[in-house]
Write a structure and sequence with these properties.
The chain is an alpha+beta fold. The chain is 22% helix and 35% strand. It has eight helices and 25 strands. Strands 11, 12, 13, 14, 15 and 19 form a six-stranded mixed β-sheet that branches. Strand 16 (194-196), helix 4 (197-205) and strand 17 form a beta-alpha-beta unit. 37% of the residues are buried. It binds zinc ion.
Length: 442
């Protein structure tokens, strides 16, 4: 593992190859181009007017039947998983995948042709730090078709342990491997697409896989394995499953630090996990607060707070408002919890824990500041009327800094308002609740 912080990488120069597309059977050229920092992977349809690009992002996922399709508007790119797998595993963060059709060339059904192109282009380090998704808590996906994906924390790198099983558990295979460029190139990339005869027979009849042949897929019929070239590995199928997993998960746009346990994976389950990771990423972004707590611009300091709130020591539970959002419906307050808080004398001696009700009080005070800022008046006083869905998730101790998030969810007339609040310590929600207020003249 390279020493932290790892940098983003792109290609040294453009490189490509031509071949046949799997579904339409047409000739297609693919060219990989270098791209700037934080660009990510984008597909470019050179065959269409204005040469539109599609971000390789999970939000753009359109279909997961047999292969992974992404799209924006009416533009589609099919079977993106093998080229994405190669780019991701070979450590390419930023690239343009230019094609003159709606599908990359299928090559030999593996990711090897793409790895060869990447090696010809070369890998070039950039300045910006690479983006990672660190698994903090186990994540779990299970589908009706029997796929199970379990993602566990592992800060050493990305590891996949995969069990593949065919119909009636024929061709059950297991493999566990670190995903790093040299292992991927040698052990995973050459593994070819495999299909069960009973699955492809109807597609062949409907002429849906015009480019499919024994040159770019291994066909399993009963216990027999049909292919032009003999199996490249005795367990080639599980290796290809891992190849597909890496390609589908590349749609999260960053590198995973964790251990994935995959049982009978498939594109649908992989995509579901990618969606769950993307959701977790945006939840974390919502929780992210500055490491340095800013003052001044756009917030309120303690002097300004006591001009608005009637609360005083020891009952003022907010030290600073660090920011209001543009619409003025959200804000974040800060409360630094010290061992000098009077409540620690009695709650509890020898085991100081901040009372949950004090956190609710802190939420109420931050929500009041938000409401007064919106109403632009301090001539009225907000009375706290009710608290719904209050949950205390983790203890708050002396030395903790609480970030108190408040969002106005409902304002009825001039007299009633509702705010959704949560308290965050060290990137974890420690408490939450929905508070209702009424206003009276002072
Ligand atoms: Zn595949």
């Amino acid at each position: 593992m390279a020493a932290a912080p790892e940098a983003q990488h792109t290609l040294g120069k453009p490189a490509g190859f031509s071949g046949t597309s799997l579904h339409t059977g047409e000739k297609v050229s693919l060219k990989l181009h270098p791209a700037p920092e934080n660009h990510g992977i984008k597909f470019k349809r050179k065959d269409l007017q204005d040469e539109p690009t599609i971000d390789a992002k999970i939000e753009n996922l359109k279909m997961v039947e047999r292969a992974t399709t992404i799209g924006e508007g009416s533009i589609r790119v099919h079977t993106v998983e093998h080229v994405l797998s190669a780019l991701s595993a070979m450590g390419i963060d930023n690239a343009v995948v230019e094609m003159d059709a709606n599908e990359p060339p299928i090559g030999d059904g593996s990711a090897k042709p793409y790895v060869d192109v990447i090696k010809r282009a070369g890998v070039s380090a950039q300045e910006a730090p690479r983006r990672f998704f660190h698994v903090r808590e186990p994540m779990h996906i299970e589908t009706k078709s029997g796929s199970m994906l379990i993602l566990l924390p592992d800060d050493n790198g990305f590891r996949v342990s995969c069990t593949q099983a065919g119909p009636n558990n024929r061709f059950t295979q297991f493999m566990s491997t670190d995903i790093v460029p040299d292992i991927f190139e040698r052990e995973i990339a050459p593994a070819r697409t495999f299909v069960y005869y009973e699955d492809v027979e109807p597609l062949m009849e409907k002429n849906l896989i015009k480019g499919g042949s024994l040159e770019n897929a291994v066909v399993v019929r009963g216990d027999a394995v049909l292919s032009k070239e003999p199996l490249r590995f005795p367990d080639e199928f599980v290796r290809h499953k891992i190849l597909d997993i890496i390609g589908d998960l590349a749609l999260i746009g960053c590198h995973i630090r964790g251990h994935l346990i995959a049982v009978k994976p498939g594109h649908a389950a992989n995509a579901e996990l990618a969606r769950a990771i993307a959701k977790e990423q945006s939840r974390r972004e919502a929780l992210a607060v500055p490491r340095v707590v800013p003052k001044g611009d756009g917030g309120l300091d303690s002097d300004e707070i006591i001009q608005i709130l009637p609360h005083r020591y020891p009952f003022l539970m907010v030290d600073r408002i660090i920011s209001f959002d543009e619409g003025g419906t959200k804000c974040i307050g800060v409360k630094t919890v010290t061992i000098n808080e009077p409540f620690f004398q009695g709650h509890f001696p020898g085991h100081p824990v901040m009372p949950g009700v004090m956190q609710v009080e802190a939420m109420a005070q931050v929500a009041s500041l938000l409401l007064f800022k919106l109403a632009k008046t301090s001539s009225r006083i907000g009375y706290f009327m009710s608290a719904d869905g209050v949950k205390f998730r983790k203890p708050v101790m002396p030395g903790d800094t609480i970030f108190i998030h408040a969002e106005l969810t409902k304002a009825r007339g001039e007299r009633l308002a509702k705010a959704k609040c949560h308290c965050v310590v060290n990137d974890a929600i420690v408490s939450e609740g929905e508070l209702m207020f009424t206003f009276l003249d002072k």
